[in-house]
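Data card: per-record layout.
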Amino acid sequence: MFTELSVGHLVEPFGSRRWSPAEIHSQIRKRLARFERLGLRPGDRVFLLFGNRPEFFAELLALWKLGACAVPVDARLTAFEVETLARAAEPKLAVGDEATSAESLAALERAGARALLTGETGPGESDAARVRLDDDALILFTSGSTGEPKGVLHTHRSLRARWMGLREHLPDEVFARTLCLLPTHFGHGLICNCLFPWLSGHDLYIAPPFRPDLVAQLGRVLDEHAITFMSSVPPIWKLALKLARPPQRGSLRRVHVGSAPLSAALWEDIRRWTGTRQVCNAYGITETGSWVAGLDDADVPVQDGLIGRGWGAVIQVLKTNATTQPLQPELACEPGESGYVWLNTPALMKGYFRRDDLTARAVVDGWFMTGDIGFLDEHGRLVLRGRERDEINKGGMKIYPADVDAVVERFAGVTDVCTFALDDPIYGQSVGMAVVLQNGSDETLCALYAWMKSHLAEHKLPSRWWVLETIPRTSRGKVNRDAVKAACQRQPPLDLPAVLARAARS
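The structure for this 506-residue chain is written out next.
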């Protein structure tokens, strides 16, 4: 599965290191010998407490060649969170780097794992190859670091199915020099942005994630390394459009955006900045190996929430989200009719690690219930409307926060926005909005209000506004609307009537 010829170079674009395939395999063999000396066996789990550097990939492939299961962990977690995950996964070993805190290493020792640093390889090399397709390959924790962890478990078979599905739909040559600005502890960054091109023999340029100072240099890096492909998330693009000069060389051939669907306005902004029309939403679910749908040819008119067709997956939109009974044909929605998005793919996870209860709530007869709301258009393409739990019910009128966000994002003075449900004594729920503005003057606020009134139905207009410096996001760059709501409610909302009154008097 991992031959001497199967990987490309590993390059640090903001540094000077460049590992050739020969150097990579030498580093893998050193780690293989070290793991064998430590008694690692097939099926054992190993925490990787660092990422986004060449050593991470050497550790990962060494583990896989031994038949062990890798558990990448967010390096920003506290020692308490690391120990919570370790008690759930019971790793035999944990590998950190020089930035890993002594407290986290001690927490792992308390949980029964032997901790070491990635540079501690020792003498000798090994060429072991014990991997089998149905071995556990990867556990990615998506939540629960302070309570009941939810870890997505993939086998080598499900990962290979994802990569094979992508190869059938995406041109191989566009990935020749791939840039990753995403963390390697979750599916989008690791499985698709990094491993898919790199294990196809393409060069991978791996950078520290979510660093504004590095995003500000994005145009220069794209030109300097002639990057042909990159994937990221909407917040990174909003920052790049604000801070970075556009690339001049024209090397980019394709751009994916994941974790949240693009609004039409941001989509066109990215096209203009990158100089390529091949920009698309890559619909990624960790449970299905990340990128599961998108546009093969992205040179299409933009549309809020447009995804495309399945990449090695069948998509259904149904009137039910129940996993307690078999799915019936009569439950299918008509084209254009919103419902619950379901996926069927050979890249589906093995299940949630040691959480059969959670697996049963998400999977029925091989179909995965995503929790997303969307519809299939007249061309059979998926269009997302939002998450099931995000839906706002205002007196029986259903409002999708993503629809409101898309309108607000088109206003020139807005740099970020998040709408969410508020309790309402009359309607049950109403709309709240957190917004980040380039200029928070009364003039800007009034212009935004007028823009929204001209583009949104009355019942979709937010009843309360909060103007924030930043929108809180998860470590994956996603918006958790409940977390944004909680952050907003710790401070008073904007007195919009007073703003409008002052503007009327001036």
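Known properties of this structure: The CA atoms of residues 167 and 311 lie 9 Å apart. Residues 169-307 form a domain with the Rossmann fold fold (CATH 3.40.50.980).

See the next section for split statistics.
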